[in-house]
Amino acid sequence: MGDGLSTKGNQALEYLESKGIRFRNNSGVAFELDETNGQIKVVVASITNPDISGYVRVDGSTESWNIVDYAHHEIHGGSSYSITNATDIANNASVQLLVVTPDTTKFPHITFESECEAEMDYTIYEDCTVAASGTELTPRNRNRNSGDNSTLSVYINPTHVTLGTELYSQRTGAGNKVGGAVREQSEWILKRNTLYLFKVLNQSGQTRWASAKFDWYEHTDKN
């Protein structure tokens, strides 16, 4: 490993291996470095044994890499959680979900969605204050071989709320006959030691149900 590479090439090799990229020169090569005109590239060399533990694997039929995205990886690692709530809401009333982040550098990366039976306003606020947090809900670990030990706390219907900075607002549905859905599939990385309010306001003219769902994983930055 490293044979035939320049000093710069070997430095690149050491750096990549320090980041967890594995190289193999014998049977089952995963990657190798290619130096051309002073440029160093990581290339797939060959994979004669796709089942070597710890190395990249390929599909035998298509020779495509078998990979999962990072959010999926966090499920396997036991650091991904989900919570749902559905409730009837009177006209011009709201259901409010309070999310409290921990005072650590393990940041929640969250996505959310909401569905409703009729016209609703969906708003997210940051840095709100409350007199009482409300009823605590239990986030569920999406890897059921791991514990329900999220560092994020979620409550329903806090009292005496002072709204903070509005981060997101969307209206969905129409009147009391057409429902709708709000889905934010791009992650929000929440600020540490902060209160967030997720508010669903019924604007339909009648009592209607609405649901809310949060999915998140908890991650400490590597750098």
3D architecture notes:
The structure is a single chain. The protein is mostly beta strands and 223 residues long. The protein folds into two domains: 7-67, no CATH class; 73-220, Jelly Rolls (Sandwich). The protein has helices at residues 7-18, 70-76, and strands at residues 32-36, 39-43, 80-89, 94-100, 106-116, 120-126, 135-137, 140-141, 153-156, 165-172, 180-189, 195-202, 208-220. Strands 7-9-4-12-6-10 form a six-stranded antiparallel β-sheet, with no helix packed on it. The protein has a five-stranded antiparallel β-sheet with strand order 8-3-13-5-11. Strand 1 and strand 2 form a beta hairpin. It is elongated, with a radius of gyration of 24 Å. It starts with 6 loop residues before the first helix and ends with a strand.
